[in-house]
Amino acid sequence: MEQAKRSPVHAQSVEQIEQHLVALGQPGYRARQVVQWLYEKRAQSFASMSDLPATLRNALEERFAFSDLESVRVLGSGDTTRKYLFRLADGNLIESVLIPASPALYGDVSDRRTLCVSTQVGCAYGCKFCASGLDGWSRNLHAGEIVSQILRVEELSGERVNNLVFMGMGEPLANFDNLMQAVGILNAPWGVGLGARHITISTSGLAPQIRRLAEQPLQVRLAVSLHGATDAVREQIMPVNRKYPVEVLLEACSYYTQHKKQRITFEYILIEEVNDRLEDAAALVRVARKVNAKVNCIPYNQVEGLEWRRPSQERQDAFMGVLSRGGIPSTIRREKGHDIAAACGQLRRQVIGASGASAGASAAAGAA
Ligand code: SAH
Ligand code: SF4
């Protein structure tokens, strides 16, 4: 059976699997058995689902495929952050980063194991400081490729992920339907079973999609990559600001907060002389107050070939001082994975080179 004609099985809800089984004249309850094999027992093939009749296993095999994420490279780092580079069935490369015990990332629980996942190959939004956007956008990930990142990392690391952030490569809200399908499977008790409050979606500020997300029933958390609290600053580094200026973005943030009765987080990368002046901090205080947001500052992670710099410790401290005196709940992310190029899109770029090769198969060949 041809791969292309089969749908990714990790992209299906239990209801969708059930519908398919019923159409085949099979009892619907078998769908529960299938998802139990997929998410509880972590089966790697239909053939291994030993309590299903052989005819059913064959029928499933004809209709569905396992998402095939080939582990190309795993990089560890001094602080135990691990970065996984995966090759997709079509040769494209994506990355996921496992960050054990990360108090600065959405919480203070010390046994937190956060996984940062990708939602697209490349990114169309072209933020000037980001490695993911440098070669443009190739394609959306389907829900099965998103879900499989968690399954594969858990399999490879032997650890259970209990916190998920959509902060890898790509703009999650530009792949809205696949994102929501994946979140549904990740959250479902029959699926991965991650609580919605342990799932954070990060966006560069797609205002209409933020509103759409606000209308979804799940209590997922929202992080907005602000990086500039005025149009003048934000426009310099984020082209998306021309489409959705700060004021429009803030209105969408308020809408989210009101609908979800939940606080959002502003992500704010500190880049020397671009957005780290005291007046930038004061503007950030005003904006965060307006929508009652928390602020998470991230000292800029150097990207090869880009001129942006991380501010000195003194400048970082001065910036944080203004936020704290302004009464804004704020954290500055502790160094995680700096030595393994953990910022989004960086590892993939090292492997495929800066030439923009999309498949990367040859460049990645031989990597452990
Ligand atoms: N596209 C989404 C999610 C992926 S980026 C978004 O932009 O929010 C996840 C986070 O990593 C964003 O806040 C992004 O701005 C940040 N980031 C990108 N490049 C970085 C770098 N070189 N150093 C530190 N953070 C970076
Ligand atoms: Fe895309 Fe986010 Fe990188 Fe901007 S920061 S280019 S939106 S991945």
Description:
The chain has 368 residues and is of the alpha/beta class. It has two domains: 3-65, DNA polymerase, domain 1 (Orthogonal Bundle); 70-367, TIM Barrel (Alpha-Beta Barrel). It has 13 helices and 14 strands. The chain has helices at 14-23, 30-40, 54-63, 143-157, 176-187, 207-214, 231-237, 240-243, 246-260, 278-291, 313-325, 346-352, 361-364; strands spanning 7-8, 64-65, 70-76, 82-87, 93-100, 113-116, 120-122, 137-140, 163-166, 199-203, 221-225, 265-270, 294-299, 330-332. The chain has a ten-stranded mixed beta sheet with strand order 3-4-5-6-9-10-11-12-13-14, with helices on both faces. Mean pLDDT is 89; it is low at 354-368. The structure holds S-adenosyl-L-homocysteine and iron/sulfur cluster (SF4). Iron/sulfur cluster binds at residues 123, 125-127, 130, 132-133, 170-171, 204, 225, 344.
Features:
single chain; 368 residues; alpha/beta; DNA polymerase, domain 1; TIM Barrel; ten-stranded mixed sheet; 13 helices; elongated; disordered C terminus; binds S-adenosyl-L-homocysteine
